[in-house]
Design brief:
This protein is of the alpha+beta class and about 230 residues long. The chain is built from four helices and twelve strands; from the N terminus they run βαβββββαβαβββββα.
Length: about 230
């Protein structure tokens, strides 16, 4: 699987342009009427997956959700990007984002929440955050839903702004913050997800943070043919 935040995609870029080989299911949420932003996920078609509809009330958010199914077990993946705003608009955006995540996390199986939330001042090791109705709103949501942050080192400069969270502390293994891709100012995050099946030990998932431009995503697809090992 490949996850990208700040995909910078728009309606002029078709799914076939992203993956001309047809090996991936493509889930995307492009930013409308403005440059930048957006999220993108590519899931190898050897993995059964389907997109989870996001209610229209949350259509202004940059997030996608899909379930990956392995025999009788499902895992929900939620990928989101939050613009770095902390004014009234930023507080309202976070309130709506938390509401959407509460809705999408309300399942009885494992959830993996990942992306760039631009929250550099959360201290995940002590669960402390500024009381600004942005940092603390997201942290309170994570604590209430028992979401554990697996990324324990900086991903952009001296800050940890990228997250891999889950309500299952045993689902993630071999997580590593690695060099950034292309011109991105974020590090990439590689990790494995444990699949509960006698025939499959684990599958490798790569979270790739790419702020711009979208042409780098096309280069990435040429370089990486398959990241999901089954």
């Amino acid at each position: 699987m490949i996850f990208v935040t700040e995909s910078w995609l728009n309606e002029t870029v078709t799914d076939n342009m992203i993956d001309c080989s047809g090996q991936y299911a493509i889930y995307r949420c492009d930013r409308i009427n403005r440059r930048g932003g957006g999220v993108l996920s590519l899931v190898c078609k050897t993995c059964v997956s389907y997109q989870v509809p996001v209610p229209a009330i949350f259509s202004g958010l940059e997030l996608i959700c899909f379930d990956a199914i392995n025999h009788d077990n499902s895992t929900r993946y939620i990928l989101a990007y939050r613009p770095p705003e902390f004014n009234l608009l930023g507080r309202e955006y976070m309130s709506l984002l938390v509401e959407s995540l509460e809705f999408l996390c309300a399942v009885n199986y494992s959830v993996v929440l990942l992306g760039d939330f631009n929250l550099p001042h959360i201290k995940w090791e002590t669960l402390v955050a500024p009381q600004d109705n942005v940092h603390d709103a997201f942290l309170n949501f994570c604590v209430y839903n028992a979401l554990y942050q697996f990324v324990g080192e900086p991903t952009r400069g001296d800050s940890c702004v990228d997250t891999v969270l889950s309500n299952d502390q045993l689902i993630i293994s071999s997580l590593a913050v690695v060099d950034h891709f292309s011109t991105s100012d974020h590090c990439s995050i590689d990790f494995s997800v444990i699949v509960h099946n006698n025939d499959i030990n684990c599958n490798t998932v790569s979270l790739v943070i790419i702020p711009r431009p979208l042409t780098h995503i096309l280069i990435l697809m040429q370089q990486i043919m398959i990241l999901l090992i089954v």
